[in-house]
Design goal:
The chain has 272 residues and is an alpha/beta fold. It contains eight helices and ten strands. The longest helix has 23 residues. It binds S-adenosyl-L-homocysteine.
């Protein structure tokens, strides 16, 4: 145990905490790893944690796997074994908000576990024993992240980075300029794939912008450790039975490139 913590202690020369970058999809992690110099793989709990330095920051990149438990385990290892002091999660999500289109991005300003229901002992959605249902993200952080992401996904920056030169956004039915929203993201251990299921979520939590399967678990662990977290989601579907996009193709051709453009720009702009 001593040896472990010594191995991963941060050198004193860097002023900002080591950052954990979690990706939900192998394609997204791959795109990040291709860009991150000098990675060193370390195995823990059946996962590979990639240590490297990127834009002057110490980074640990890892595939979270799907679902809340997998995401919570991965986050806990990042915080306790790798000494990470900040966590970013990038992945895809279903759009719930009326204006949230496929291809847009949502930055979480708060996260709720939509499948947490210990009623009547506790109010629906409340995390038992904590007295809260909504896990907030610091508003300054949300605004800063959204600004950088807007810049990174502007047509000019994407073209400069060569990020979308071979992708036919129109053919995929996507907006040429993605809108970057901030708002509530819901997480639960269910893929929401019907108008009925997404309608029920909208009725219960009308302010929800997107639904996915990991973010609120990451936020809960980060909250317990008092470490800031950022959840960024590219919208892959509308969580309804009208899915018109080829999910794997969307991940490979759009979500992984957006993830790379966003994470790279956020690291370059990172100030603490
Ligand atoms: N078809 C994929 C599985 C996707 S599971 C595969 O073959 O691997 C859905 C993943 O995308 C989860 O990580 C979840 O966070 C996110 N997601 C995207 N759309 C979602 C939706 N409508 N409901 C729940 N999660 C969604």
């Amino acid at each position: 145990m001593m040896a472990l913590s010594r191995t991963f202690d941060r050198p004193m020369t860097l002023s900002l905490p080591r950052i954990g970058v979690m990706a939900a999809m192998p394609e997204e992690l791959q795109a990040l790893l291709e860009a991150m110099p000098n990675q060193q793989p370390v195995q823990r709990a059946g996962r590979v944690f990639w240590l490297g330095q990127w834009h002057g920051h110490e980074v640990v990149a890892v595939l979270s796997r799907i679902g809340k438990v997998a995401a919570a385990t991965t986050t806990t290892i990042l915080l306790t074994e790798f000494g990470v002091g900040e966590v970013w999660f990038t992945g895809v999500a279903g759009g719930l908000g009326e204006r949230v289109r496929v291809g847009d991005v949502v930055v979480a300003s708060a996260l709720v576990q939509h499948d947490m229901d210990a009623s009547p002992l506790f109010p629906r959605f409340e995390l038992p024993g904590s007295g809260v249902s909504h896990l907030p993200v610091c508003p300054d952080r949300v605004a800063r992240v959204a600004d950088v992401v807007r810049w990174a996904l502007s047509p000019k920056q994407l073209a400069l980075g060569g990020a979308l030169t071979d992708v036919h956004l129109a053919e995929l039915g996507l907006p040429a300029v993605p809108e970057v929203h901030t708002g509530l993201i819901l997480s639960g251990d269910q893929f929401i794939g019907s108008a009925q299921a997404s309608g029920a979520l909208r009725d219960a939590l009308p302010e929800a912008m997107a639904v996915e399967m990991e973010g609120a678990a990451v936020a809960q662990v980060c909250h317990d450790f008092d470490v800031p977290c950022t959840v960024l989601r590219t919208i892959s579907d509308r969580a309804d039975d009208d899915a018109h996009l080829d999910f794997p193709r969307f991940i490979e051709s759009v979500a992984s490139r957006y993830a790379l453009a966003m994470v790279s720009a956020l690291l370059a702009a990172r100030q603490g």
